[in-house]
Amino acid sequence: MKTNELLIELRKFVLIKSGLRNIDPGHCKIISEYVFQETKNYVSETTIKRFFGFANTLHKFSLFTLNSLSQYIGYSNWESFCSDKESDISDVQSIWQDLRLKTHAITEISLIAKKNNSGVPFNATANRSFFYPDFDYFLKNSYQFTTISAQPGHGKSILIAHMVEHFFYAENALYKNDIVLLINSASVSAIIQNGQSLKDWFLKEFKFGSVSELISFFKKNPEKREGRFVLILDGIDQFLLKSSYFKIFIDFLYSIEENNFFKVAMGLRANTWVNLQPIITGSAFLTKTWYTGLFYDSDLLSNVPFLNTEEILHTLSQIEGKTMTKNDINPSLLEQFKTPFWLQVYYKIKFENELLDLKNPLLRYELINYFLEKKIFLAKHSTEKIFILKKISDSISEGNKGLRVAKEKILSYATTYPIIYEELIFSGIIVEEKRLTTAIPIEVVRFLNNDIYTYFIFIQLTEKFEYKASKEFFEYILKTFNNTTLREHILNWTIRFCINRNEIAELKNILKLPFTNEEKNKSFDFICYVAKYELSKPLSSFNKQSVGSEFIDIMAIGRTMSTLYKDTIKTISDNVLNEDAQIMLHIIECNINLIDIDRAALTNTMHLLKRNYKRLNELFPINPYDLILYFYNNLVNKPNESKSLEEKIIKLCHQIDKSPAHRNEDLTTAEMLTFRLVLITLFSQKNYAESHRFTMAILNKYPNIFYIRHSVFSPFLLIHLGQTYLKLNYFKKAQRIIQFLDKIISSEYTYFTNFITTSFSIFKANFYNYTDNYEQALIEINVGLKIAAEYDFKMFEVALMLIKIDALKHTDATEEVSNVIKELLHFLAINKISMPDYANLNGGEFEHTFKILKSYRKHQ
């Protein structure tokens, strides 16, 4: 036996002794400890890694290492082990078994290389067992060769490794007597570097002059054959780019005589297969003996499908060390992970940056940025690569088969930088394909992944505007990108770009320009995700010192309530160093806590606010702490000394009323937060006349305030005025507001949120209750309850159930009233919340029912 063969045997017995069937780098430390315990000889973890092929072996293993490992498995030394193995096979080794042992040595090294090159630990990868019956069919039937073809990064090499283990090497492998010879790029490189031809190498290793000679021998001597000989070639694409090697490979395929025991499986990139397929389909023999497989896609020239959800979740569960479900992962990431190489990028970035999680849509963009940074921006010839990629992205158009460009259109760049162009293809950034549906087949070029294309489109956009996000920048996005998915990605890249550079004010353009309401809401959420992430990063431009009024403005004109919004406000208020910004954020937090009926959180935030009571007087037209205290007392059932507060509100009302008319642009965040708190305070006090006067005063100062389309404050004000009209019995005026709101909400560019939609449902339900249209009221209530439950608007759920009780009482639906009351009390109990007075928006005649319900709740 050769030394390599003996080393393979030693590795096998060390694994058996250690109780392992497979090995990864993490096991090497354990084996080192086992060897020391057994022999008292210390063989380092690094040496064990080299022994099993996980680290480069620059020299032969020392006799000490080989003796120690031999002693570990029960021999006195390495020489004793070698003698024993030689005697085992000297008399019984057949030609087939000799071949099997020699191929095993090469295959095992190739397998280890594949496992080491896996971007995630091999045992975490999906084994794609759906492919096994297809490969088994190929082995059992009269085909000579098959292809496993895919684009780079689609997991073909890992699939091959799993299949070799499953069919030939696993403990319960189906075909243990078959010979499998796995040759990868490293094997071919080693042969070439040693100055050998493939033919010379084959003769030296296997004592046959060629594959054809080997086949002829076993055809003439069938009794000497003990199974099949399966040759698997993978990672040889770089060699097939050279015409000389390509010719050798074609000659090799033609040299395979028809037989039933020699099988060839080729792992090829799709762009290599583009060149090979015409030769195969042009030969009757090769076409007959080629097994395409069940999963072959003739358009993509691939038979390795994208990962399915189950396979993605399997790998992520292994990486995360816990069972992952679809709900644990952002849907856009789940889509991205269908291509396996993004899982590899995630595995790398996870250990460098633990601040991002799988629910965060920002992770998608960080993965793209990380991948391109390593592959392009920090790589050799980065300037030339970026230049070519920008030219390709600029030339791409969208057709039936996706985003691509005819190669002839970018041929000048490919021929100017041929080596760099080939690097981009081989590194999997761009791919070449044949377009066969045209009259004359043409070559096309596309990015491997649309996300990469989008990134380079964005890069060109920033260059066009000299790296300055401005109103014109966003207007260009609005005008140029009609594809909604592409526009969403461009907006998200822009949000990331602005927050990275702390150019927050420019983000207001998204809300002010006529992007769709869905785009505005998604963008607002993405602003929250990026802001939280940037604040947690060291050396970020958006940091504790730099968070200021521009960011607070966006938070104030945006969402009123959502889990993400709540987390963002809390995270930033806990970290910001600008005292005025922190105060504003605390006011927003209190507003959230009131809607959430969260007494504990409200108490904590009010405690922080009280420390700055004096500064609150300076920042706001009326001290918001006094207004929040009113609601706090309401929440904890404390009496309110409201006379002095009423006087302050009336005084402020006069001041606003006497103010000259202002433009909408003059409305400040401090005013918006104050006006909101004042109006809901007056409404809660049942001081509807003063609430109406205060709204009219605001309208006097800002005559066009109802026409603001970029802030939730305008629809809030309209809904509040409508509710006030109901209380004052101005039903026609309330109806006109409903009609106006219906009109502006149906306009695509108006910015509104789920919170506003639910508020509007409450307003309409109240209107129908007041006008005795109880059936329509119940329809609106159910619409509102569905949204409120989905987005956890607790105060609205309570308010809507109270309105529902009122509506049902008027329809004499006694049993249904009882059911809703039980539902309401159950909701309060499981959420451990009270039923504050400000949650009751019904008319005066419902007051007695409300007091009974509240009293019942108190005594439970």
From TrEMBL:
InterPro entries given in the database record: P-loop_NTPase (IPR027417), TPR-like_helical_dom_sf (IPR011990)
Protein name from the UniProt record: NACHT domain-containing protein
